[in-house]
């Protein structure tokens, strides 16, 4: 997969934000991880929501965010609440 938008959970808005913060390839997203990418996005868009974080994690794992485990979603929810 060569484009961010080709990853599950990454639409036009998220792709634009990722590119803006320097995460411009799927490999870079995987390397920085969903939390790292989300923290970068929050610096330029403080309104970024929990569902975007779910989408980023789904993209990293190669699945739709609806397929993330309950444990993963709970962990991400706790991370988000701590911001």
3D structure, described in words:
- This protein has 4 helices and no strands.
- The chain is mostly helical and 83 residues long.
- The protein has one domain: 5' to 3' exonuclease, C-terminal subdomain (DNA polymerase, domain 1, Orthogonal Bundle), CATH 1.10.150.
- Helix 2 runs antiparallel to helix 3.
SSE sequence, one letter per element: HHHH
Q: What count of domains describes the coordinates?
A: 1
Shape: globular
SS strand fraction: under 5%
The helix fraction, in percent, is: 55-70%
The gyration radius over C-alpha positions equals 11 Å
**Remind me, CATH topology?**
DNA polymerase, domain 1
The first-level CATH class is given as Mainly Alpha
Can you tell me the residue ranges where pLDDT is under 50 for at least 5 consecutive residues?
Answer: none
Name the CATH superfamily classification: 5' to 3' exonuclease, C-terminal subdomain
Roughly how many Å apart are the termini? 31 Å
Which architecture would the CATH scheme give at its second level? Orthogonal Bundle
Number of contiguous helices: 4
Number of strands: 0
Kindly state the mean pLDDT as a whole number? 96
Largest sheet: none
Oligomer: single chain
Structural class: mainly alpha
């Amino acid at each position: 997969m060569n484009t961010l938008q080709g990853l599950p959970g990454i639409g036009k808005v998220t792709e634009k934000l990722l590119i803006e913060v320097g995460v411009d390839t799927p490999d870079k997203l995987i390397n920085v991880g969903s939390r790292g990418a989300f923290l970068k996005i929050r610096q330029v868009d403080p309104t970024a929501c929990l569902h975007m974080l779910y989408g980023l994690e789904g993209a990293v794992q190669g699945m739709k965010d609806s397929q993330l485990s309950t444990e993963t979603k709970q962990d991400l929810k706790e991370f988000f609440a701590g911001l």
